[in-house]
Amino acid sequence: MPPGSKLVEADLADRFGTSRGPIREAVRELVREGLIVEFDRRGNVVSTLDARDLAEVYGVREALETSAAELVIERADDASLAQLDTCLKAFETSGGDFLERSVHDLAFHRSVVALTGNKRMAAINEQMLTQTALLLRTAAAASPTLQSGIRPSAHRDILAALKQHDAEGARAAIAAHYRYAEERLFPGLAQ
């Protein structure tokens, strides 16, 4: 549903062929994930994420991934890091448009955090990735320039630093990646 759409439980129940109970539960979960905004006495609407939201989400993701990189460097073996290489190859060889490729992009970032073995960190990261997917859809709809390819070295630099057990290099590569992503996405989002 497009951002800003009003959500009416009865209409959603009819649309999905279910009772209002499961709809209510789903709406609560989506409110928790930041994908729906709940207004007192006015109901619920699909979130309209903007440039401020992008900065906040990417700030959290960058902090999580920087911490995750340090843990991965301490704990991960070569076989674990090979999983990241597999994710990266899927991203680099995927066809399709920006949004189709972003699935592989987010899978790489999800895998970095998953390698920590920290379930709470992974849960917070998953919430941020869900909001990122919405931000990417919003930005792509507003900015056709996002359809061009992402700089291929952005993820390779992160992976190379992790393989070299270079925490400072990983921190710098993650920071560079997020600055680059923000530069590309900010023009496609309302301020």
Mind explaining what this structure looks like?
70% of the residues lie in helices and 5% in strands. It has 191 residues and is mainly alpha-helical. It folds into two domains: 6-46, Orthogonal Bundle (Arc Repressor Mutant, subunit A), CATH 1.10.10; 51-188, GntR ligand-binding domain-like (Four Helix Bundle (Hemerythrin (Met), subunit A), Up-down Bundle), CATH 1.20.120.530. The mean pLDDT is 87.
| CATH topology title of the largest domain | Four Helix Bundle (Hemerythrin (Met), subunit A)
Q: Any low-confidence stretches, pLDDT <50, length ≥5?
A: none
Oligomeric state of the chains present here: single chain
Tell me the major beta sheet. Answer: 3 strands, antiparallel
Q: Distance between termini?
A: 21 Å
Instruction: Work out the helix count.
Output: 8
What global shape is seen?
Answer: globular
Count of folded domains: 2
- CATH architectural group of the largest domain: Up-down Bundle
Q: Give the DSSP E fraction (strand runs of 2 or more residues).
A: 5-15%
CATH class of the largest domain: Mainly Alpha
Mean pLDDT comes to 87
- CATH superfamily of the largest domain, called what? GntR ligand-binding domain-like
Structure classification: mainly alpha
Widest beta sheet: strand line-up: 1-3-2
Helix-strand topology string: EHHEEHHHHHH
Q: Which bin fits the share of residues in helices?
A: 55-70%
Number of strands: 3
Radius of gyration: 18 Å
